[in-house]
Structures are given as C-alpha cells and as structure tokens.
Amino acid sequence: MNEPIKVLIIDDSAVVRQVLTKILGNQPDIKVVAACIDPLYAREKIKALKPDVITLDIEMPRMDGLTFLDKLMRLHPLPVVMISTLTDTGADATLKALELGAIDFVSKPKSDTRNRLSDDYAEEVIAKVRTAAKSRVKARQISDTVQTSVLASMGFKTTESIVAIGASTGGTEAIKEVLMQMPADAPGMVITQHIPGPFSGPFAERMNRCSRVSVALAKHGQQILPGHAYIAPGDQHLEVRRDGTRFICHLGSREPVNRHCPSVEVLFDSVAKHAGQNAIGVMLTGMGKDGAEAMLRLRQTGARTIAQDEASSVVWGMPGEAVRLGAAELQTPLQQIPKTIFTLLRQRKRLAS
Q1: Residue 145: its pLDDT value, please?
Q2: Helical residues (DSSP H) of the chain, grouped into ranges
Q3: Which of 85-94, 150-159, 309-318, 323-332 has the lowest mean pLDDT?
Q4: What value does the mean pLDDT of the chain take?
Q5: Which of 105, 131, 236, 286 is 20 to 30 Å from 244 by CA-CA measure?
Q6: Least confident of 41-55, 74-88, 103-117
Q7: Cβ contacts of 24 within 8 Å, gap of 6 or more
Q8: Closest Cα to residue 306, out of 274, 275, 345?
Q9: What's the whole-model pTM score?
C-alpha cells in the first residue's frame, strides 16, 4: 500500500487547525502529522516529520506566512497550500504567495463553521492537498528580475488572430511567464484562469504591471484588440463573440461548467465557434480536465493548439488530458510557449498572404 500523504498544518487559529485536522484526518490516504501555531514552532516539526504537504496561514504572530514561505521555497522547497481570506488584502497576499512558490490556496474557514462544514469546502481542501502532494516543486531563485527576452514586434494592427489561454493550478505564474514575453502589439488574448471572484481583479492588475500588453478584466461587449489581454472575471464565464468583423468579449452565465466558473471549456468552445482557424488555443498547467474536450473541438476547426509540457507544469492535469485526447497539436515547455505562438502566427500570416 502507498504511504499516506503527511500534512503539517500551520495556523495561529485553534479553530482553523481543528477544522483542517478534522477534514484531512478523515481521509484514509492523508495523515495530519502536526498542527502548529506558527512557523517558528513548525520549523523543527518539518525537519523531524518530513511532511509531504504544508497548509500555511498568511497572517500570524512572530513570523508571517509570506516571510516563512520565502525562506522555505529557497532553502527546503515543499508543496504548500495557502489558507487565505477572500478579501482584496487577502488576494494580494495570496497572489504573492503563488509568486513565491505556493501550489494553491483555499479560503479560510469561518470561525463558526467548526461543527457545520460544507461538503464542497471539505472536498476542495482534500483535492488541493492531494494535488499538491503530486505537484512539481522547485527551489525558488533569489533573483526576481523582470523577463527581458521579449519577442519582436508581431505587427498586428487589427484583430487578425486571437490567442485563447486556459489555466488552473499553477496558472497565475504560468500566465505571467507568457504575458511577460509578449510584445506590445501582440494579437488580442483572452484568458480564463480558475480563480475566485475577489482575486481576479488584483490578478489582472498584477499581470498588467509586468506586461507590455495592456491587461484587464474583460467587460461585456468590449472589443478584443491587439496589444490587449482580457481576463475572465472570477465569477463569470468569458466567451468570444462576433459583432460584424469585430471580435468582442461576452460575459454571461454564472453556472459552473465542469465545476468551474469561469470555465476554460466555455471559452474554448466560443473561440471554436466564432474564431475557428483564426485562433490559437493554449492550455497551461492545471488540475482536472476543464477545457480539454473543447480544445479538441477547437483544433478540429483548423485552429492551432498548444499544451504546456509535463516537465514544466506544476500540475499536468488539464494539459495532460488535452494531450491524451489528441486536442494538443504541440507540447511545449512553458518558457517556449510565447515563441511557439509567434511562430504559428507567422506561419498563418504567410499562408494568408
């Protein structure tokens, strides 16, 4: 039999420690080896117990979670799931944690939920811990310099092509890697990242600060223009529609598809229907299967499709499923995806001329 996943909980709230211990301890494949009040207590436990996954609070006395995470990911990298508050302040801190190397996050349980946990919340915690245990964690480099290898001008002045990107676990940093290499005149990009509503605005702002293209949350009816990237709000599906010769953003249903809202499946199906061979679909790292079947339909329209390769993915769920279905024409390391997009666009331009 496989050994259970050893989890160490770090949180200054006794209620949260009890809630997480109850959720995780009831699973036969998970064992909570310790629950610590702060990182200073946890350091010796990590050395002695060698946990497979850590759950980590952000706001704690003596040493905050971000300071601890920064040290951990440089000196002794381990899969970390952050326990976050769903607020603007919590969003900034959580996105910083993902930048520092955390695998994923779940919302902090409310103080009155000790005895009435929802099944959905428990399932989310369990799924993310299991995924973290299988993820690829690398030691974080001290240097955080801005990417300088930006692609040359693409020369897009009208919406000749659309790039559609889908991502989930590990996707916030993968999307950043792609956007940072794109030139200011890149084709219009539409992006669905699985993220809670309160986090999507701060995420778009962070991407805008590090990109040469203009990045913002998509708005209903907004024209898709070159040099712009449009991110799905965290509680609405983003679709691409046609308005005459223009492509526009369409925000509609809030009903989950494949258990997600926004859903990559919804985005890719709309791109297949309204852009077809004028599109490039890109599937980045992510847990689950969302978007893989729609990517196959997108490829069948004549669109070009790229999946992030397994070695560079934090979690090879969504891109792996796309490859399994034959939906991905190419498998590409993350750092090479912008160059691959550029090459495919150039090929299409030559064929059209």
Answers
A1: 42
A2: 14-25, 39-49, 65-75, 88-100, 119-134, 171-181, 197-209, 264-274, 292-300, 318-325, 337-352
A3: 150-159
A4: 92
A5: 236
A6: 103-117
A7: 7, 9, 30, 32, 125, 126, 129
A8: 345
A9: 0.93
Measure the CA–CA gap between 53 and 283, rounded to whole angstroms. 26
* Residues labelled catalytic: 168, 194, 290
Ordered by where they begin, the domains of the chain are 5-134 (3.40.50.2300), 162-352 (3.40.50.180)
* Amino acid, res. 132: A
| CA 229/CA 341 separation, integer angstroms | 15
Torsions phi, psi for 197 (to 5 deg): -50, -50
Q: How far is it, in rounded angstroms, from Cα 78 to Cα 50?
A: 10
38-42, 57-61, 135-139, 232-236 — which is least confidently predicted? 135-139
Q: Report d(CA 33, CA 104) in Å as an integer.
A: 20
Query: For residue 89, how many other CB atoms are within 10 A of its CB?
Result: 13
CB atoms within 10 A of CB 112: 8
- With both helix axes pointing from N to C terminus, report the angle between 171-181 and 337-352 in degrees, rounded to the nearest 10: 50
- Residues recorded for the chain: 353
> What is the CA angle 88-91-95, rounded to 5?
150
Give pLDDT tens digits for 230-245.
Answer: 999 999 999 999 999 8
First to last CA, the chain: 60
Per DSSP, 12 falls in state: S
CA distance 6 to 24: 10
Alpha-carbon gap, residue 234 to 23, rounded angstroms: 26
Q: What residues pair up with 53 in beta bridges, in sequence order?
A: 7
The residue type of 73 is M
**Distance from C-alpha of 240 to C-alpha of 267, rounded to nearest angstrom:** 7
CA-wise closest residue to 310 among 344, 283, 348:
283
